[in-house]
Design a protein that fits this description.
Keywords: ATP-binding, Cell membrane, Ion transport, Iron, Iron transport, Membrane, Nucleotide-binding, Transport. This protein has helices at about 40-50, 95-100, 110-120, 140-150, 170-185, 195-200, 220-225, 230-235, and strands at about 1-15, 15-25, 30-35, 55-60, 65-70, 70-75, 80-85, 155-160, 190, 205-210, 215-220, 240-245, 250-255, 255-260, 265-275, 280, 295-300, 305-310, 320-330, 340-345, 350. The chain is an alpha+beta fold. The chain folds into 2 domains: about 1-230, P-loop containing nucleotide triphosphate hydrolases (Rossmann fold); about 280-340, OB fold (Dihydrolipoamide Acetyltransferase, E2P), CATH 2.40.50. The strands form 4 sheets. It has a 6-stranded mixed β-sheet, sandwiched between helices. Strands 2-1-4-5-6 form a 5-stranded antiparallel β-sheet, covered by helices on one side. A hairpin with a 2-residue loop joins strand 13 (about 250-255) and strand 14 (about 255-260). Helix 3 packs across helix 4 (about 140-150) and helix 4 packs parallel to helix 5 (about 170-185). The longest helix has 18 residues, at about 170-185. The chain is globular. The protein starts with a strand and ends with a strand.
Length: about 350
């Protein structure tokens, strides 16, 4: 069931358009990530949903109630939306317990019990209730901010890059914790982030914005495996882009004849492979590899993941082609090695 409807939302600041007719349908209980480069409009869209900005045109409907557009404009404090920002925005003069219970009636009989339940939900030890924000780590502060946002049982939770200030390991832990807490609370959530891996792992649907327009919207696996264009392909992860001649069911390229999805357009096009689709096998000395091959030009060691630069000589061109391929650290060939290149799964033909 559609819970949040974003219908042709547009917004400009003077002559500069920030959003251009954005359309999205967000299901109840789902987690949606909005990603895009700086200036793409993702924060503006979040602020319009929250009620901090007013759209120039279009409509916003939450659970059947018009929030903006068509003559409606519900103020932010009456929308029933919780927000967790990048810095947590905790009140420095209040204790953890008072920060969490800020929106709860002070004389409510179950106030302390509700605060304790929320602290347990976000995995904060009860002994922290009397501490001040400056006595907490960054991850603990974000847990307090999340508990405070959940205290009033919001219908929708907005997460504005809440993990970006945390260290890498802690960011991953917090992302999993937040996803679990939101799932347990049955809350619908929208995450704005510039971290593509974060978006793909957190959300069950991803919206890609670019220059104020919605480029693609759908499940993360679909966007990762079948991006619309080369900008989206490279934005969502490492991508190998190759020129190819498409015939029904096949793509002819420097890696030979590769399978493509049924119904792909024919003719000259760009195909995409993800690094995990490619395997490199060291050729036996003195033997001729079966299938496309190349020679290792350089290896960039990165621990578990390494980047291998493969040189592919072409009989039809004076200059060779080079492919940058990710490999597992203990499987990497050495510089100068002749390798066979095999591709697993179909190549994706880009629309643009």
């Amino acid at each position: 069931m559609t819970f949040l409807t974003i219908d042709a939302i547009s917004k400009s600041y003077g002559p500069t358009p920030a959003l251009d007719t954005i359309d999205m349908r967000i299901e109840a209980g789902g987690r949606t990530a909005i990603v895009g480069p700086s200036g793409s409009g993702k924060t503006t869209l979040l602020r319009i949903i929250a009620g901090f900005e007013t759209p120039d045109s279009g409509a916003l409907v939450l659970d059947g109630r018009a929030l903006a557009g068509n003559g409606a404009l519900v103020p932010a404090h009456k929308r029933g939306i919780g927000i967790v920002s990048q810095d947590g925005a905790l009140f420095p003069h209040l204790t953890v317990a008072d920060n969490i219970g800020f929106g709860l009636a002070k004389k409510a009989a179950d106030r302390n019990q509700r605060i304790a339940e929320l602290m347990e939900m976000v995995e904060l030890d009860g002994i922290m209730a009397a501490r001040r924000p400056h006595q907490l780590s960054g991850g603990q502060q974000q847990r307090v901010a999340l508990a405070r946002a959940l205290a009033l049982k919001p219908r929708l939770m907005l997460l504005d890059e809440p993990f970006s200030a945390l260290d890498t390991g802690l960011r991953d832990t917090m992302r999993r914790t937040v996803a679990r807490v939101l799932r347990a609370a049955g809350a619908t959530a929208i995450l704005v982030t510039h971290d593509q891996a974060e978006a793909l792992s957190f959300a069950d649907q991803v919206a890609v914005l670019r220059q104020g327009r919605l480029v693609q919207f759908g499940p993360p696996r679909a966007l990762y495996g079948k991006p619309r264009d080369r900008e989206t392909a490279t934005f969502l992860g490492e991508a190998i882009l190759l020129d190819a001649d498409i015939v029904p069911g096949r793509a002819e390229c420097i890696l030979g004849s590769l399978a493509v999805e049924p119904g792909s357009k024919t003719g000259q096009a760009t195909i995409m492979l993800r690094p995990e689709q490619i395997r490199l096998t060291t050729a036996v000395a003195g033997s001729e590899p079966d299938g496309p091959c190349g020679r290792i030009d350089d290896v960039e060691f990165g621990g578990g993941d390494c980047t291998v630069l493969v040189r592919i000589d072409r009989t039809d061109r004076a200059m060779p082609d080079f492919l940058s391929i990710k490999c597992v650290g203990f499987e990497i060939p050495g510089p100068g090695d002749l390798v066979r290149i095999s591709v697993h799964g179909p190549a994706h033909v880009l629309a643009d």
